Amino acid sequence: TVDEDAKVLAGGQSLLPLMALRLARPSVVVDLGRLDVAPAALDPGPGPAGTLRLGALTRQAVLEEDAVVGSAAPLIAAAVRHVGHRATRALGTIGGSLAHADPAAELPAVMVALEASVVTRSSRGTRTIPCATLASGFFTTCLDHEEVIIEVHVPAAASGTGSAWCEWAARSGDFAEAGVGVSLEPGDDGTCVKARAAASGVAPIPVDLSSIVSPLLTGANTAGPAVLREIAAAVAAECVSELAGLLAARAVHRAMAAMGRGSERTGSGAAA
Known about the structure:
alpha+beta
């Protein structure tokens, strides 16, 4: 039988604070910290630029610094710099963040924007779950009680993809009130051929904003004031958050400026 009150400890940077506040009271804690972690790897398929494979126990500090991650998924590298503090990122893991499903966390929203998926394992075998459907509510996922994430698969970014993550927090390292990530893929003529975006902190689960930014940015090689205002208004209405709208406009501006020459990796930690 499976103890439904058991919890898996993948890094502890989210679970342990909840336990300290008595918001989580697992009957058993299973520490995965000593398991081996495969390095980030870029597979040749199935996407046009390949697939980035990340072990679920990959530390967030590795995501920040690894050259393979920075090249294949620049939005991950940009966003993870805003996760807590350096000490937090040294212990926190990508799988732990996705399974914890904190609405304010950066990585779940990034994975939605990048159309990533997770591979899980249980006594019944393995299955693949799109990150867009992984979170089902506030700190809740569609994972079964005996199911754990073992890998994260991210479609690799095409050459010249412009990425930016912008968020606002009262202090560096605090949970952000809202965050928005944008990824823009250029075509051969330098215009945007694919626009993806998602927001954190504005709903119980990450909010996919791609349907808003894609019609306005596809075919463009710049985003002028009128387009940015339209994006800000549309995102603000979708997220019921003017802050999210402003962050979306800023992230689009930075990603568009970076498109064709690489990633904008200095997304603002505070509104300015």
